[in-house]
Amino acid sequence: MLKLYNTLTKQVEEFVPLNPPNVGMYICGPTVYDYFHIGNARTFIMADIIRRYLEYKGYNVKFVMNLTDIDDKIIKKSIEEKISASEVAGKYSEAFFEDIKRLRIKPATIYPRATENIAEILSMIKSLIENGAAYNVDGNVFYNVGAFKQYGKLSGKKIDELEVGARVEVMEEKQNPLDFALWKKSKEGEPFWKSVWGNGRPGWHIECSAMSCKHLGETFDIHAGGNDLIFPHHENEIAQSEAATKKPFVKYWLHFGFLNINKEKMSKSLGNFFTAREVLAKYSAEAIRLFFAQAHYRGPVDFTSELLDSAEKGLEKLKNLRTTIDLALSKNKPGGTNPEFDFKSFEDRFSEAMDEDFNTPQAIAVIFDFVKEANRTIAEKESIHNNFYITVKNFLGKTADDVLGIISFEEKEVKQDSLLENELIKILIDIRLKAKNEKNFQLADDIRKKLENLGITLKDTKEGTDFFKRD
Ligand SMILES: [Zn+2]
To answer: What average pLDDT does the segment 101-109 reach?
Structure first.
């Protein structure tokens, strides 16, 4: 039984989807005005692991992630880069898709964009005006926070306390300082869409309400996002959706903790700001994923290069076992014994950990226990039946690869070109052997390391040296 912490009720609850085996999940995606940073990467990776685990449990997940492709920041960037707002959005959307692919994040079922859903946004604003929850002031449409009595139910903030804090701000044409823009009148030279209130563009909050409703229905199962979005963004999404549909918006709200760099808040002014692609230039996607999964998704994470290095090192254990399995299976020897091994208990422990509010640190501990146990079993037996290696591979394939994405078991096609490459590798293996016989260990090690850097792993066995290739 899967349990998860719901920010709305502030309790750990049993997960009961509205329409099993279907699960609707929405996550606030990027505003595409720049490369996304490593804090965003944490949110996207942990949401990906949660989605993959729901699929592992047999749910059919419809995963929706929006792209905010019109916004003040995009307009500002378009002026700086002297290109149109839609070119800025196009450029950084493309970069976003490249980066999430490299981080091994499964593609969403759909990526709705604000500018492609203007009709849905306008129709929701219209309902809000009709329901007395919004008002138009000279082409700007505002949400009337006072009309939604449950405002603050997600963040736990109280309207009167918020008002005191907000009063110092400029009121503009708003009736109440907490009211927020649903439709912004366009200024000279800004991109705009036509509406009954005049030319303008949507506010940020309304796009998530309109697009989640379009793709997941008026009420859906899971809405996720970074902690920093609880207030005001998610609070406003609830206010908009529930005032428009008169139905509960979301059943479970999940929020991801903050990321610090060397115990300091990440910020451009402190010079400790990293984009995901900067981190990907130094570390593998698997190490980044392992590093994040080693912390619980709700807690804070301290990001340091030492911890990333140690994640990369930790992965070696998994990769070594993968090499052992590949080697054994490539030999395809018949016979051998089938050692006693309690696969079921490892599967149970993995699910128990993940069922406990997605306790990935615990799930990873189970995987590394499994690796240790599998290695011990392999070392003890002279000859092992292929079925054992296949079952080891299946377990890691389902947990470490399919759910956590910290190793890949994808089969690689053998290309014709690689025949020549294979012959060249064999020549290097011969030279390495000669070097070893002449006690030139420096050279022998150099050859091994250089091949490793090219993605070719050498494995010395009693019968000689085997090699394996990976990208
Ligand atoms: Zn959102």
So the answer is: 97
